[in-house]
Design goal:
Elements: H1 5-25, H2 30-53, E1 64-68, E2 71-73, E3 76-79, E4 83-89, E5 98-99, E6 104-105, E7 114-119, E8 123-126, E9 134-139
Parallel strand pairs: 1-4, 3-9
Antiparallel strand pairs: 1-2, 4-7, 5-6, 8-9
Helix pairs in contact: 1-2
The structure holds copper (II) ion (CU).
Residues 93, 95, 127, 129-130, 133 line the site of copper (II) ion.
């Protein structure tokens, strides 16, 4: 899926974010920490290679919400605090990711475009163009 250069750039920082999370899940172990540190360096290289091959589709990330058929999928996504969530519009219609009370508004996301959000709190959001589109992000306990 060409046409998402900004999304690919964001993906690299998201993968770095994921490695930080994994470090927390494996407390203490020096070897484990060293391994993930190495992967944190390797991850951007992998992304760069994918770009070079022209495979523009983001990998099926855990923190991706797809907009398709006038629906956010999944409608509830549980993420670690501080995670980056990518919203990808695979629909034929434009959408927004909006939580007005939290000051979150993607603006119009056209088909084929995306939006990245750093999640530090639970977020109930809607698409302002299609008020029936509602979904939420929850923080992992
Ligand atoms: Cu919409």
């Amino acid at each position: 899926m060409p046409g998402l250069p900004e999304l690919r750039l964001d993906l690299a920082s998201c993968m770095a974010q994921d490695t930080e999370v994994e470090k927390v899940r494996h407390p203490a172990g020096i070897a484990v920490t060293a391994l993930w540190a190495a992967l944190a360096v390797a991850a951007p290289v992998v992304i760069a290679e994918r770009q070079a091959r022209g495979s523009g589709a983001p990998p099926a990330g855990r923190n991706t919400v797809v907009m398709a058929q006038i629906t956010f999928r999944p409608s509830t996504l549980v993420v670690d605090k501080g995670s980056h969530v990518l919203f990808v519009n695979k629909d034929v219609a434009p959408h927004t990711v909006t939580a007005a009370s939290l000051g979150i508004d993607s603006g119009v996301i056209n088909p084929g475009k995306g939006f990245r959000l750093v999640v530090n709190q639970a977020v109930d959001y809607v698409c302002t163009i299609h008020p029936s589109m509602k979904a939420k992000l929850l923080l992992r306990a």
